[in-house]
Structure of Cupin type-1 domain-containing protein:
Amino acid sequence: MEVDGKQGGEEKVGGSDCETSIFILNKFKKVIKSEGGEVKVVSGYRWKGDLNPMHIGFVSMEPNTLFIPQYIDANLILFIQTGEVKVGWIHKDKLVEAKLKMGDVSVIPAGSAFYFINVGNDEKLRMICSINAAGTSGWKSYQEYEESYKAWSWRKLLNSIIGKQWRKGGRVHSPEPYNLYGNEPSFCNDYGSSISIDRRQYSPLKLTGTSIYFVNLTAGSMLAPHLNPMATEYGIILKGTGIIQVVFPNGTNAMTAKVRAGDVFWVPRYFPFCQIASMDGSLEFFGYTNIGEKE
């Protein structure tokens, strides 16, 4: 079954009680929706002349479904929220393949045609991906760009999907993914843990100008107020409920919002902020820091 179908449309998603705040991104655009799954994207806010905010994409796929080959002229940083997926893409005339599981982070380079197959056993696949808006024209079906690719590139993708073998040296494996759940946290105590990775811990990130973080707060705990003087931060609530507070650089309150699973927030550089888990359970969130420095 293919993930293909109707396109377009916007909806508000998430549980924030602060819908008017620009620091909660809740206008999701449905790019594709069908019986096999859906793709939706939320766009970053253009802040103080920032012409290239990050977009966040959400991909869900039912068991035994194929996400037909697509093209996007941006680096995709994938995070597997649930399930398992086989990923294939063509980069520099080579077919690159990877099998990813829950917690894995992987990078698909800009300008690659790619596909996804849900290979989990009766489990729905959920992925989150960052899309750097600089120079991008959005999600496009591979067919819309096929004239810019050699015909054999298209055949390579199809042969890989249906399991055919082709000449030696035509297929390469991607760098090993980085698993956020399987590596030691950067910081850990009785109130929670956090992990942050950049190009030093995971070399494929050097192409993106982006770093990644994951935080788990125990019930009633708070991530102490902090700010980022170098980059804008984006976050997605994965589990639980809590509060996010953002303060203007002059010290006045910018936002205090209740959040729950599915909410997306962002914080400009120099804005102090903190996250607080509710007393009902732990709060987990994952996100991207748009550093902007690429190699």
